[in-house]
Amino acid sequence: MRPRTIWPTERSSSVNTNAKLFWILFGFFVISDIVYVAWSILVHNAGYVTQLAGVQAPGSQPGSPVEWAGTLEIALSALMSAFIAFYLGRSHRSVGAELPEDRLDANIDDGDAEQGFFSPWSWWPIMLAFGGALLFMGIAIGVWIAFIGAAVTAVSLVGWVYEYYRGNFAR
Questions:
Q1: Does the structure show a pLDDT above 90 at 72?
Q2: How many degrees, rounded to 5, is the angle at CA 30 between CA 27 and CA 36?
Q3: Which of 17, 41, 52, 127 is disulfide-compatible with 156, CB 3.0–4.6 A?
Q4: DSSP string, 45-67
């Protein structure tokens, strides 16, 4: 049997691959949330589902049979996945262009556009991360540490922005 030939004019579909992946992720989170709620009800009531009707099962704990923190977290993850999938699908349709990863005849080299300029030998990002860590640690532990973190963050940000205006790398 001959393999099917993929012609350059064929497209994978009208919705791009990224949106499809996020819709699949949305479905996974919805199914996970349903299973999580059912599991927490069964574990809470030791197998009895009578507490939902207002009757307390013997040996069960008082309170809600649903564990709300995990339920809400998984539901919000599903909602965020749906938002991202909707946005990607809508923007793909409005632009009309097709990404290289959506074409069946694309090569790896088709998607390697310029991503920006990054300083290969710069120490400023490490200092900026250290200053940000000090800043947030100061908010959690003591305000005096936050002042030091804010100063280190400001100096690091200015140093990173103006790195190519002075010294060996000046233009």
A1: yes
A2: 140
A3: 127
A4: TTT--GGGGTPPPTTPPSS-SS-
